[in-house]
Amino acid sequence: MLLEVAGLKKSFGSIIVADDLDLHVAAGEAVGIIGPNGAGKTTLFNMIAGGLSPGAGHIRFDGRDLAGVPPQGRCRSGIGRTHQIPQPFEKLTVFENLLVGAVYGRRTSEREAVQSCGEILERLGLLRRANALAGSLTLLERKRLEMARALATAPRVLLLDEIAGGLTEGECSELVATIREIRRTGVAILWIEHVVHALLAVIDRLVVLNFGRKIAEGAPREVMQLPEVHQIYIGIEA
Amino acid sequence: MDDNAARPTQAFRIETASRASRAAAAAACIVLLVLVLLPLVAGRNLVQDLIFLFYMLALAQCWNLLAGYAGLISVGQQAFVGLGGYLLFALTLLGGVNPLLAIPIAGVVSALFAFPTALIVFRLRGAYFAIGSWVVAEVYRLVFAQFKPLGGGTGTSLTPAVTSSVPGIESIKALLDLRTPAARDIVSYWVALALMTATLGFVYLVLRSRRGLALGAIRDHEAAASGLGVDVYRIKLAVYVATAAVTGMIGALIYLQKARISPDAAFSVLDWTAYVIFIVVIGGIGTMEGPVIGAIIFYLMQRYLADFGAWYLILLGTLAILIMLFAPKGLWGLLSERYDVTLFSTRRRLVVDGKNGRA
Lengths: 238, 359
Ligand SMILES: Nc1ncnc2c1ncn2[C@@H]1O[C@H](COP(=O)(O)OP(=O)(O)OP(=O)(O)O)[C@@H](O)[C@H]1O
Ligand SMILES: [Mg+2]
Prior knowledge:
The complex is a heterodimer. Chain A has helices at residues 41-49, 71-77, 94-105, 110-123, 139-152, 169-184, 196-200, 220-225, 227-233; strands spanning 3-12, 15-25, 30-34, 56-61, 64-65, 79-81, 157-161, 188-192, 205-210, 213-218. Chain A is an alpha/beta fold.
């Protein structure tokens, strides 16, 4: 198993955001996560990526327990992520943003990283903006930069946090195509998304979270039919 | 998305210095040459003023690297100015070391002191780090005030034997037909110029290196930087120790020129940190150009307004507050936004080489 979360617990004061959570992603697999606002989805990513330490439980990557491994170590071992609220390096250019990920996340030289960074930018439609300051990007471009930057670290699992919100139909299907192609290169995907139809076009398995608990898991279309999932999702997905 | 993954891939290349920055480098060489030759014609007042400008500029570059890039808002850099100054006095007066040799030794020892200091203050975050760094500097001051061989709390002076033992003074005296104090100033001027140039060069090379890439990332978003593989702690530690070394050398030079030291002056938070912060803030934090502009403005204000005493300080404070409120990127920020210029270009541009696939 590539990524394995077992018995994870976390609370902020009286709010429980992870309640004995188990989750796994196999190499090359694509798993989706849905759940209402405040269910603890982003918090789960923060714990996997190392920005936040869990109250209890284990996170293993490639068989290794990640307890005590700092975020930079997790990135280098192959965990890439995007942020729900983009966090670009605003006074660096788009290309330099990717270089940071490539040079430090993959431990290559700048020169060796150029070609792959250029190709990633091309694939994500950011090539025209390569030498623009990241601070000048639109929200949509910032979200693409989040993905591009994570890809520059050559991840083995890519954690995507709500990247399809606010896209037009056309943009959304392009995004789906892009993520499918990333998958084809062997990268596993763990994707939090409210735009369920985009998610269903990519994933093999769906996990539903509510109040930090896993309330359903399985084949995406079957899970979506479950009454308890339906109840939560009334009004969210038209 | 106008680019399409199905297209044949293009060849990419990285490009660093732009034509404009090459022109700036040429201009910098000319300015440097003029500055080197200046004391041959300039009066002693101007020479002394410029020494002051040079070391304030060098201190500002160091603080900018610390605070503007590494996010270490230290208000305790006077610890290393004072340490460097006292080391120079100890090495020359008590150890009989030549002053010019004492300067680099002061740098090395400052770095050695910075290491354990960092282990303490790095446990603190944000405002607590600032306060902690100040407290540490106060501890340094109190310790040196106890050191009787260098005058304790009242301080001491360099002997004429030491001050005139700086190499080159005799030849300058003979060459330019000057008296010893004037010749001493000229040598100090050249040393200060060399130290400032070396500091600028050092900071520039750091920012151009892969470390500079990480520092830019840390400056803009620390958590995101560590999420992309940057070891933030290690880079901060390296910056802290390196700037302490440079600051210590500048401190040694400052007190070689002043020839008199006391704990209160050498570890003065006003002289060696508050003014330096002023310079960086009005010039523009997080850029290399900012501290250069800030230092020149500070020098001019000091030169023409210092006679107004308390009013001068009030004016400095007011100016700093106005700039923080209305131009938080400093004067260089205003300029560079309007005219899109850079003097010290650290940009890495992506250039598409291959023509296959795209028009
Ligand atoms: N650092 C923190 N300190 C305190 N509370 C937090 C912190 N981070 C998140 N929370 C709280 O934990 C709960 C879960 O937050 P989280 O961001 O994980 O939700 P989410 O499932 O990603 O929701 P959304 O769909 O809105 O993004 C929320 O109530 C949030 O306010
Ligand atoms: Mg979230």
